[in-house]
Inverse folding.
């Protein structure tokens, strides 16, 4: 039985084991901790989670947590929707060892409980009941999905929390330095192109009952926040939600935009919703369509990822400006 503990309560499995009776079999003593001094992390709930040592066998239920682990050189034992992760996240690829634990919204509690994990990383979007169920067998830390008030700060706060729990603080510092260097590189490239102050609008979209619904990444969204760091200006006029900075629009809503660089994400696996607008009269009249400033960015750049994914967006924006 693992000796990892969490300060918010004893493992149910440990309690049942301690209560066992009526057997003559000799019970083996707990193995020694996996190594290292105890580690305490204060997660996004404000709860202290204490581990006997740096976590080695870790699972993550959301893709930002998976990316953080891989970028910290900790290959997760398990992850949600591995097929989807490989389709959307190229910055921090998985090897063939992680176990798939189901969907991001409803991971398999039974599978998680069977993997002898030291830690499960979840986001604040996971149902509290599911978190409580996981905690009956395994310590959990909760990271924020994002924060529209400081998306880059939130990204690094989550990365640092996982780094503390896994004993990879040095790698986290390297990732921060690499991100800062990428921002400086992108800023210099934008200046050289004479594009400092250029306006952009970034989005993705989906088709519902034949209608294209557009999801603007407004002020407070992570990707635009990164692109503004290199000297560009996010031009979406509407407000987004408080967590991710995501808005809602249709093709008529695009008429509020000036002649911007209109960049968007799609995926060949699911199709390109913007292709559905090719014959739409409103779309055809938009200034950025007329001027040829509509560009689909490369596939598999995760919009809600970590510093490695955000570095990819810096490169993608510079490449788009050069075209």
């Amino acid at each position: 039985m693992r000796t990892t503990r969490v300060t918010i309560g004893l493992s149910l499995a440990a309690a049942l084991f301690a209560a066992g009776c009526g057997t003559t079999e000799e019970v083996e003593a707990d193995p020694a901790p996996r190594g290292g001094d105890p580690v305490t992390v204060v997660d996004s709930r404000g709860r202290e989670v204490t581990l006997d040592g740096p976590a080695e066998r870790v699972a993550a239920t959301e893709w930002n947590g998976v990316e953080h682990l891989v970028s910290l050189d900790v290959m997760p034992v398990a992850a949600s929707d591995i097929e989807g992760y490989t389709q959307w996240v190229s910055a921090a690829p998985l090897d063939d060892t992680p176990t798939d634990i189901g969907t991001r919204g409803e991971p398999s509690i039974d599978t998680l409980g069977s993997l002898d994990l030291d830690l499960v990383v979840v986001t604040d979007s996971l149902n509290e009941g599911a978190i409580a169920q996981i905690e009956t067998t395994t310590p959990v830390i909760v990271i924020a999905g994002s924060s529209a008030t400081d998306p880059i700060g939130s990204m690094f706060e989550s990365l640092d929390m996982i780094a503390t729990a896994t004993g990879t603080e040095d790698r986290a510092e390297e990732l921060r330095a690499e991100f800062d260097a990428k921002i400086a590189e992108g800023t210099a490239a934008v200046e050289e192109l004479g594009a400092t102050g250029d306006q952009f609008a970034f989005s993705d979209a989906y088709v519902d009952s034949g209608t294209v619904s557009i999801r603007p990444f407004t002020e407070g969204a992570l990707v635009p926040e990164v692109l503004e760091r290199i000297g560009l200006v996010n031009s979406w006029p509407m407000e987004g939600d408080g967590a991710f900075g995501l808005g809602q629009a249709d093709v008529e809503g695009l008429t509020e935009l000036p002649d911007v660089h209109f960049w968007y994400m799609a995926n060949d696996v699911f199709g390109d919703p913007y292709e559905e607008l090719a014959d739409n009269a409103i779309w055809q009249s938009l200034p950025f369509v007329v001027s040829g400033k509509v560009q689909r960015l490369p596939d598999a750049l995760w919009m809600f990822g970590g510093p490695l994914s955000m570095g990819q967006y810096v490169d993608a924006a510079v490449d788009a400006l050069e075209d």
User: Anything to note?
Assistant: The first strand starts at residue 39 and ends at 42. The CA atoms of residues 175 and 265 lie 24 Å apart. The chain has two domains: 12-167, 193-322.
